[in-house]
Amino acid sequence: MLTLRQIEVIRAIMITGTIAGAAKLLSVSAPGISRLMKHTERTLRLKLFERRHGRYIPTPEANDIFEQINGVYKKVDDLHYTLARIERGGEIELKLGSVPSICHVMVPRAIERLRRKHPDLRIDINILKIEEALDYLLLGKGEIAAMSYKLDHPGIDFIPLAMGELLCIVPDSHELVGRTSLSAREIVRHELIGIDPNDPYGRVMSEIFSRQGLAYDMRIKARFGTTVCSLVRAGLGIAIIDQFTVAHGSMQGITAIPIEEPTRFQTYVAIKNDKAPSLYAETFVTLLREEMNAVVSPRLRAPAKAVEKITSG
Predict the structure, then answer these.
(1) What gap in Å lies between CA 138 and CA 135, rounded to an integer?
(2) What's the CA gap between 274 and 32, in Å, rounded?
(3) Which residues, 6 or more positions from 138, have their beta carbon under 8 angstroms from its beta carbon?
(4) Tens of pLDDT, residues 44-103
(5) What interhelical angle do 30-44 and 4-16 show, nearest 10?
(6) Is pTM beyond 0.70 here?
């Protein structure tokens, strides 16, 4: 049996006609090429080259072998081309969804890093309400979805992504600016803007008040956290928002203040459980998890050994 290395050496000698030329082509030493060639001929019990005037002339038997070797190389070249195309993401589109709170800041940062790894990859991003994510995945419209809430469905796996906290946001000119923290009881004394508590995302915000029996009376409701931020910036009230929406100073004109009560919540990646994720989906989730964990308090970060991969469930 010939090894790939022996095939490579035979081909290099036939192309260049010399041991030195083959060594240069393969970026190895000439003595190493010579030793391997002699070993190959002994193993095959077949003379492959005649040495004439310093050049290596292939025997008729070697010419027959060369035809087969070229066929092998064509297959290997095709394989290398395919692997390179996969690495760059050529002719491939990753379709992913995300709830607005994660999509506003975290997803673009993860996508930027993903494109650096796979520069030819095409990406289709859909902003989804939590209840829209099931159809998005089950109907095959996308491969994965970043979620701020977990739903129960036999066809969908929810893999923990990152743990986050809520913040109180106020206009930069508000009287509360300068406070190091606020209690839920203090927050409800002000004009409130928020998301309907019947919405799964809105329920995350409302729980800190319901646990203490406080009325969460919102004069203005909006569907998305980014809209809530804009309304606060306009001076129409204060609000509770998740830290990922306002990470990296993405919302100018507002000040974020920590909340004294525990407000942690878990985010997830949802994936249809009858299909293995692609390389690009796996990489995206890893990068997204890193971006999200980079902005949360160290006490909320899962130990590295406990962080689940997208394929676990």
Answers:
(1) 5
(2) 51
(3) 153, 155, 156, 272
(4) 888 888 888 888 888 887 777 777 777 777 777 767 766 666 676 667 899 999 999 999
(5) 110
(6) yes
